[in-house]
Each structure stands twice: as structure tokens, then as C-alpha cells.
């Protein structure tokens, strides 16, 4: 069986406070990476980080709204200052504020969906790629 080794790698996973993002974070932590995990609520994302640390992993929890470029810029700046590199970006954050017929979808819900699900990954990539390049390259995974 092949085992991934992410020792000395820094991984950023957004939308990691629950579900698929949380599972991805725990899996990458098990492979030895230093994690920066994000969510919208400090308590929720900190609980995930604490669990990873309790199980021997390395995790830093950060509040970051995936649809707000200012939050993303601040996060990448923090990663640059604290870790000096970024090797892995996993864009997992998403929202679906409306369930029902598309013709009845309120414009506010549509705009929020576009902000988080489309613009968010683009903003994360545009801010992360320069740091990844400075770090010698990296990998980006966009979860759909």
C-alpha cells in the first residue's frame, strides 16, 4: 500500500470545519503536513484543529470567509509570516443557501453562491499561487 508523506509540507484547507473538509484535513494531517484549516466560525474550526492536534497532527485554525477577498489576503499573509511557504491548497468551502426551483432563487442567494463557490476558489488561487511559486511550487485541488 502506498502512503503519502507530507512531512515539511504546509497545507491550506478551506471549508474544513465539518464534513468532507474535516475528513480531508484529518487525512492530510495523518500524512504529516502542517495544516492551516479555515471556517467561518472560530469555535467550530478550533474544535477540528484541537482534535487533529490531540491525535498527533499539526493544525492552525483560522477564521476566513471564502467569498471575501480581504479575509483571503489576510490569511495568505499570515501563512507567509508564520510558515514561510505553502505547498498544498484545497478549495473545499461551498454554500447552497437556496433549495428549490432555479426560477424562484432569490438574487441574494444566487449572489452568495457565486461569491463563495466560484469567486472563492479563484481568490484563494490568485492569492496562494505567488506564495506557492516562491516555495518551489505546489498542488491545488478544487473540490466540486
From TrEMBL:
It holds the Pfam family adh_short. Transmembrane segments: none annotated. CDD domains: SDR_c (cd05233). PANTHER family: DEHYDROGENASE/REDUCTASE (SDR FAMILY) MEMBER 4 (PTHR43943), DEHYDROGENASE_REDUCTASE 4 (PTHR43943:SF2). Belongs to the short-chain dehydrogenases/reductases (SDR) family. This is Short-chain dehydrogenase.
